[in-house]
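Build the 3D complex.
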Amino acid sequence: MESVNIVDELRPLFNPTSVAVVGASNNSTKWGYTTFSNLANQYKGMIYAVNNRESEVQGHQAYTTLTDIPGNVDLAVIVVPAEIVAEVVTDCVSKRVKAAVIISAGFAETGSKGKAMQDEVLKIAQKGGIRLVGPNCMGMWSAPANLPAFMFPMKIEKGPLALISQGGNIGSAIVADSTARGIGYQQYVSCGCTADIQIEDYIEYAGLDDSVKVILVYIEGLNDGARFVEKVSAITRKKPVIVVKPGRTDAAARAISSHSGALSGTDSVYEAAFKKAGVLRVDTSTELLDVAIAFLRQPLPKGRNLVVTTPGGSYGVMAADACALRGLNMIDLPDRVMAEFNTMFPPRWSHGNPVDPAGDRDVVQYMKAPEILLKCDEVDALIFMGFGSFSGITSVFASGDKSWSFDDLKMDVTEIEKLALSALQILDSGDKIQIKGLLQSILNITLGPVLATKAEELDSFADVISTALTTEKMMERSFFINLRQVFRLIANGQTGEINMDTVVSLVEPIIDALLEKWIDDYGKPVITTTFTEGTVKISEAGFSPYPNSERAATVLAKLLEYAEYLDRQ
Amino acid sequence: MESVNIVDELRPLFNPTSVAVVGASNNSTKWGYTTFSNLANQYKGMIYAVNNRESEVQGHQAYTTLTDIPGNVDLAVIVVPAEIVAEVVTDCVSKRVKAAVIISAGFAETGSKGKAMQDEVLKIAQKGGIRLVGPNCMGMWSAPANLPAFMFPMKIEKGPLALISQGGNIGSAIVADSTARGIGYQQYVSCGCTADIQIEDYIEYAGLDDSVKVILVYIEGLNDGARFVEKVSAITRKKPVIVVKPGRTDAAARAISSHSGALSGTDSVYEAAFKKAGVLRVDTSTELLDVAIAFLRQPLPKGRNLVVTTPGGSYGVMAADACALRGLNMIDLPDRVMAEFNTMFPPRWSHGNPVDPAGDRDVVQYMKAPEILLKCDEVDALIFMGFGSFSGITSVFASGDKSWSFDDLKMDVTEIEKLALSALQILDSGDKIQIKGLLQSILNITLGPVLATKAEELDSFADVISTALTTEKMMERSFFINLRQVFRLIANGQTGEINMDTVVSLVEPIIDALLEKWIDDYGKPVITTTFTEGTVKISEAGFSPYPNSERAATVLAKLLEYAEYLDRQ
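Done.
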């Protein structure tokens, strides 16, 4: 049954006005308990509990069957034993339910008997015009409906991603990692055995939803590869679709058959289908999220010519291997750039790509290097190592025994308080030129004592930063709120309350603004790294530093792969 | 100059009684500032500042030259421009300094002129019997001397690892990750251009130090491959040596030459040398630490036959691919095990390896599976997915709307308080049998209401756990301190102060104890996973859950590689 219009067809699923949970339970050891409580706590439409032995479920009236419910039901979430799902779906038909999420397991994944039950359920649903998610799935999320139709509570944010996963657990892990990194979803569907709505249908739906910027998919097996290629090709021309598809080995193929009931198929066939459909394949769920996040904010590279800047030689060595092994071209630096860096960096600098100032304490020179490189036609992309929370700039403040202190100002306390008050007035004025001037003064005053930089160099760097900080975009972000707060504390003589967190809250937006400026000015991707493991939040401007060069290089290689695919269209 | 006994030879380096910093500075923008402050803050031996323009450095008397220092100097840390290092090393000879760490850069890594300077410095040192670290390095750490001879402050713990790194930055990143994971070092040396003491010398020293359990190495290029193989072979028979060696690509080889001045060499030559020396090669710094941590607590597998248990099918699928791709053998489950699992799990369980109970809410059955598998002769190792902080057991308490509550006890408050007091008496008695009985009661009382488990099953599981909790090792750990604290709060009617952190502080040691019991009882490695990114601390018993199956499989493959190497000796 091919849908004429997938958006209309799946509207009751993603935007239901009423939901019934069949198998809703008062017994906390049952999935029907958490499935219902989850929805009842969050979903704002009509919600009904169906339980054939209770008159009340978690304080809500319970109905013996779906057909007993007085109002309309758009969506049924079914969490009853597999054996009675057919009966429940028959009730759905009677009740004119439009879509159902079958969480219940025990279908195609268990073998031929389960497959026969699944086919029976599908037949009933198709005859009754009901679209099915699952069976054997963990449920779904739809941001516009604020609908967490999951079998257990899960933290998920609204956001620009869509995730379709044939594995509920790996889907949950990806969502958990996304939440930790500060990114959310427009839709997430755990599609399980995918009896009715196919993976390509969900991709098409997400593809037609303008709120979705990147589509993430975990596939165990496709039911109709040709249909997948046809439908998904149309989407990948508009937005990236990134896929994890295990099953390269026999061991995994066997595991797939007992999990989602899918035929894993020959890996080379999938590889060819993905290539044809313009789908980007990655190996792990970490890469899936890494690459998706990059697409949200990075422009596509025009070619594979890459430069790396690094505050440390060994990082650069690892990056060179990681990039070259992924087909990126570590270019020789143009002569004019070599000449310029020779004047900027100490004689021991690396004299090549990766650009490594070799322990130069003058961080300003390092922060100038990206623009010099990005403006070269020879350069398509930059990996800037040591950004984000572990950036060179932050470390100047955060490490060492010598942090910046008010004593560096060598000023009278009342004088400082007066200056803070006048700074507040300037910030309140909204006058961009005055604000820029103020920022430049602050930067000169605070950076001067801690940076090993000549005054005129510092001045021109402060000019670059203050320009980056006074764009329309930046004016709306938290930087100015935080800055005002600092001046208020100074004006009130509460400088003791200014701590390292305060400093970071001002320094991180500066790094964000610089990164934004480089990317916007030159239209080339700039991927950043932190060097240490551990979750790093996506910045306010949408940038994510990757923990190491391997992950940064993978991201860049995938941006390039997508750019090349689009070029061929 | 081959040393007769490397331990004696390097004692002044790793256990100096006095240290001088040449180039110690009052100027916070100089590396000489942080190098000195770092040592002055922590090192307890005699410390001297040498500065030819100041009479005082950071409150310490400063000497114009080394030779002006009145007392003996074992170790000189040199942080002056490259051009005057030869002069300083000449002073070291006059002063009878025994070892020097040359942080200064600008030597072999910068080309032939720098190489000539380096050779000159080496000649002076060798003639004067001084052993050199570096040049162009970030310094070193020695736990017995509590000696942080680094160019900048770095958090490093004492511990069972040794790290030798030809890259200071990557070394720092590895140390930072180690600190975050809760593991430390006996020695860490950033060896830079390795003019004098060679990488194999440091490995030999660490190999002969019984406090070092695993040796981690980052190599850019070796000066004498045959010597490396000879020296390191003797060590790898006793303890694992794990190596990251970039330079597979030309881009990285070029970067290496400008970084450490090393000749990266043909990768296949290194590959062969590592194989011959029994060195385990990994690709990234993350893998280096992952594998090292596993060696600290896991036994070696006797073969490549592996089982995986997973709380989710997709995790299992990903694990099967990850393991099979790394040469591990996902065995078919023996018939008797199949039969046993058929009685334990719901009919929808995966019926194979990976073992997946497919959403069974009865977590007790899942926790029983490892012992059933580990006691099989057919099984050499287990990957147990979903352990640690994200384990099945913890999630029973931590997730869902239905957490455990005192109301579940259905008891009078004073009755509960009385029971808590008598529990405290039992804990104080030190009587293991009574304590075991107490633990078993507590487990039955608290788990009963939240687990979907039959009473007799729960009882036998409580017996397993309470046995695991009352081993000599466990009795010394924090579990009993935390448990006493909980009973004190209950006895004082302060149950409101018992929160999720309290629960986790009791549940995590239970998981630790179970894991320890499985490993100790069967002598087989049990690798665990969490599923989500982000740093996980090593547990009190020394176990580390890995975030995903790819990392777990890499670890297991390396344990196997080492076991096979030892078998061949």
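Chain A has 22 helices and 18 strands.
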